[in-house]
Amino acid sequence: MISVFQIFKMLIGIVIFIFVMIFFMQITDMYADVGERSGEYSFASDFDNAAMDVYISGNPGTFRGFGDAEHLRYEAPKLFFGSGQKTMSVPVFMIPDADAMSIERRCDDYGWFMNCYIFALPNASTFLFTPIDNTPEARENIKSVTEALPDTAYFGYCSGDGILRGNKTEFVKFIGAQMTSMSFSECTRVLPEDTRLVVFGEPENYTAGMISVHAGVVKSLVFDAVEEEPYAGTDDLIAAMTGGVPALKYKHEVFVKNLAVSASITRQRAMLVSSMFLETNVQPCLECATPKPKACGWTSYNGVPAPSTLYTSFRNRLVALENMVSSGSYTAVINVLGETAVIFEDLRSAGCE
Question: Which residues of 40-50 are buried (b: 16+ CB within 10 A; e: fewer)?
Answer without folding.
Answer: bbebbeebbeb
